[in-house]
Recover the amino acids of this structure.
């Protein structure tokens, strides 16, 4: 068993991509600093990147527990959305009947504004972590469900026939065919969900709660500490980006056959 | 002889399109039978019926091929499985232990010329190699019969020719039955011990020709015996074509 496929991407390409990413971040910071300097904006309107960085460092101890709360709610919500999304896709894939029954309400659920749903969830489930987890799950489950279901739907029926001739059970079909076939779609859905998830948690915290980045943001606004608000925004962005990258890396590990193909 | 497949006067339509009409034949265990017919005549539908993947509208089918070593037209290797994992799939579904599966696959890979490629993914292989992986998967079902749908249709002439000769030798070694459909007359003559000739759609059996060639004659595509067998089958194909046009 000696064959070794080509590695996912040469390391020089990877480091080039990283440097391009860093450059794009630096350009954004330069633009931000340029706007502050050219228009001579006061810090309460728009703090400079340097002032925001200073606040970030000074408030690190205060931000830490808020960040941990938001991260925990986000992860729990994402996990709930993933299991719910894949289960729902499996149920919809089981029959045309279940698909017709579930697909329309699934699509309609995304037409309901988050700002209308979130307060209701807080009224029903209280101001604790559970409500925030549910809000994150509400925001995230749609792309996961749709991508998983569409992945199941486009599976070549020839594979199903082949498995039939091998005496495969329904469990075998999901294990050997449907789940691996739809895994790239699930990963793509999860990447979208990862970016929405932090937003969901922050909105929930913003509307009510004792801890989390959303709570930190409302308190910053109430005291006109725009620099703190910007610091929190940076943390939220970093968190979203970190989750996105984590899903990306995990996805690449879970789909090694695509890595070799994409970069062959 | 025990019948492997016994098909009596079956018919099949898709909407208004009649695909099979009064098709009858019998294949016994241990036979190597090619089902030859023009493109689009209903060969794959017939194969799907004998594999119990499709039901006939009329007639009776008794088949021992529901659990067989099936190689579909598009090969259908699972892109997310390596060569070894694809080959081991029938064993895995059959509940064979992982170490036993690995040993079985490792044992068979050299016979299929794949020992260097156990960890390769299907897209990293040539068309001929993918075909051999799919054949290995079919062989590892342990079924007494292999069922092939246009087995080498997508390959270039040279690769097809080599694989046909290789498969012919492999079948001798394995002692398994082979049922395959093809539109390629040369392929049918090279691999079959008996050819069922189908007419244009709606397909009917217009000939049942024994192909009595020794291994040497079979490999010599331009030999007298091979060409004579080829001409007999061609005459039936053309006759079936004329009747369908009348």
């Amino acid at each position: 068993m000696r064959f070794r496929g080509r590695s996912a991407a040469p390391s020089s390409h990877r480091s080039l991509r990283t440097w391009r990413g860093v450059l794009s971040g630096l350009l954004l910071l330069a633009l931000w600093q340029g706007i502050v300097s050219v228009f001579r904006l006061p810090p309460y309107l728009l703090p400079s990147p340097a002032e925001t960085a200073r606040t970030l460092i000074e408030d690190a101890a205060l931000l830490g527990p808020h960040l941990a709360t938001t991260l925990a709610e986000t992860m729990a919500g994402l996990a709930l959305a993933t299991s719910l999304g894949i289960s729902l896709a499996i149920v919809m894939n089981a029959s045309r009947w279940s698909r017709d029954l579930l697909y329309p309400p699934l699509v309609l659920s995304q037409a309901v504004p988050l700002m209308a749903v979130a307060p209701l969830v807080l009224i029903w489930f209280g101001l604790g972590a559970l409500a925030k987890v549910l809000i994150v799950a509400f925001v995230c489950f749609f792309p996961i469900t749709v991508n998983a279901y569409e992945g199941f739907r486009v599976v070549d029926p020839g594979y199903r026939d082949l498995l039939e001739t091998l005496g495969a059970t329904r469990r075998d079909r999901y294990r050997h065919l449907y789940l691996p076939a739809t895994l790239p779609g699930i990963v793509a859905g999860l990447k979208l969900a990862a970016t929405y998830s932090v937003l969901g948690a922050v909105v929930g915290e913003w509307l009510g709660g004792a801890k989390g980045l959303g709570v930190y943001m409302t308190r910053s606004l109430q005291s006109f500490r725009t620099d703190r608000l910007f610091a929190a925004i940076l943390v939220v962005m970093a968190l979203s980006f970190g989750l996105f990258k984590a899903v990306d890396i995990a996805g690449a590990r879970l789909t090694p056959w695509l890595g070799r193909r994409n970069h062959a | 002889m025990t019948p492997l497949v016994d098909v009596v006067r079956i018919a099949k339509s898709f909407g208004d399109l009649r695909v099979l009409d009064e098709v009858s034949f019998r294949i016994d265990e241990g036979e190597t039978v090619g089902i030859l017919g023009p493109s689009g005549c209903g060969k794959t539908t017939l194969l799907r019926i004998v594999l119990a993947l499709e039901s006939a509208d009329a007639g009776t089918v008794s088949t021992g091929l529901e659990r067989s070593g099936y190689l579909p037209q598009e090969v259908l290797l699972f892109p997310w499985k390596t060569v070894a994992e694809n080959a081991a799939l029938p064993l895995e579904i059959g509940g064979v232990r992982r170490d036993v599966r690995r040993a079985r696959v490792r044992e068979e890979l050299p016979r299929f010329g794949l020992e260097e490629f156990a960890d390769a993914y299907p897209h990293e292989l040539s068309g001929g190699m993918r075909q051999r992986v799919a054949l290995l998967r079919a062989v590892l079902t342990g079924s007494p019969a292999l069922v092939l749908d246009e087995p080498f249709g997508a390959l270039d002439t040279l690769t097809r020719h080599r694989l046909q000769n290789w498969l012919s030798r492999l079948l001798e070694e394995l002692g398994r039955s082979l049922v395959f459909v093809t539109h390629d007359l040369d392929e049918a003559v090279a691999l079959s011990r008996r050819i069922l000739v189908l007419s244009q759609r709606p397909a009917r059996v217009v000939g049942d020709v024994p192909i009595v060639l020794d291994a040497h004659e079979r490999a010599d595509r331009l030999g007298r015996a091979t060409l004579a067998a080829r001409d007999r089958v061609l005459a039936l194909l053309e006759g079936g074509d004329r009747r369908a046009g009348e």
Observations:
- Chain B touches chain A at residues 48, 51, 53, 66-68, 70, 72, 74, 76, 78-81, 83-84, 89-90, 92-94, 106, 115-121, 123-124, 141, 147 (CB under 8 Å).
- The helical segments of chain B are 43-50, 83-93, 98-108, 127-139, 157-174, 185-191, 215-219, 224-245.
